[in-house]
C-alpha cells in the first residue's frame, strides 16, 4: 500500500478508537437507559454490546477480504463488437471488465467501489456485502446511543454537558454512516459500485447499453446471494446488448429528456 494511504488509515483508526472510547465512557459513566439496563444485566444491554462487538470485528476484518486481481483476464470468444479490455501498465495485466487500478492499494481491484481510509483497503467485489453489513450495524449502535443519551439529558445533573456532546456527535456520525450504509445497500441490491454509479458516462464497457440498463444486475436476491457467497473475484463478461430494451418514457431509443 502507498505510504500516504497507510498513514491515513493509521490516523483514521486512532480517531475511530478515541471516538468510541469517548462516547462509551460517557454512556457508561453517567445515568441513562442503556447504563441502567447494563447495571441490571437486562437483555437490551447484551444486544447492544453484541452489535457493537460485531461492528468492531467487521470494521477490522474488511481489509482481510480484498478483491485484488493479480492475473490477466483476456476474454477471447467475441461474438459481438464488445468494448476492448484495458491493460494495467503498473500491474502488467490485462484487466477484465469492472476491474480498476487503485493508486493507494497499488493493486487492481475487481468491482472497485472506492478506497476506504477507515478500513484501510478498497471496497470491492469480495468485501462490499461485509462493508454494508458493518455500516448498518454501526448505524444501529450510533442511533441506540443517540436515543439513550436523551434519557440522561436531565438539567442540573453531572452528565448533562457530556450527553449534549454525545448527542451532537452521534447525530453527525449517525447521518453519515446511515446514509452511506443505505447507499451501499442500494448498490449491492443492484450489483453496482460507487465508481460505476458516479462515472458510468465515461466507463467504456457501459457504452453499448442504454443508461438505465445495468448488464450485471441479476435481481435483488441473486445480487445479494452472490455478494455474500463469492470467495474469488469474478471474470466479468458483457452480455450482448438486446436489440430492444425496455426503455422508459424519459429514456428511449430516439430521444432523451435529460
Ligand atoms: Zn493495476
Ligand atoms: Zn485501494
Automatic annotation (TrEMBL):
One of its GO terms (cellular component) is endoplasmic reticulum. The keyword Acyltransferase applies. GO terms for biological process: protein targeting to membrane. It is a multi-pass membrane protein. It catalyses: L-cysteinyl-[protein] + hexadecanoyl-CoA = S-hexadecanoyl-L-cysteinyl-[protein] + CoA. The chain crosses the membrane at residues 7-29, 41-62, 131-154, 160-188. PROSITE patterns: DHHC. Its EC number is 2.3.1.225. Belongs to the DHHC palmitoyltransferase family. The DHHC domain is required for palmitoyltransferase activity. This is Palmitoyltransferase. It comes from Stentor coeruleus. The lineage of its organism: Eukaryota, Sar, Alveolata, Ciliophora, Postciliodesmatophora.
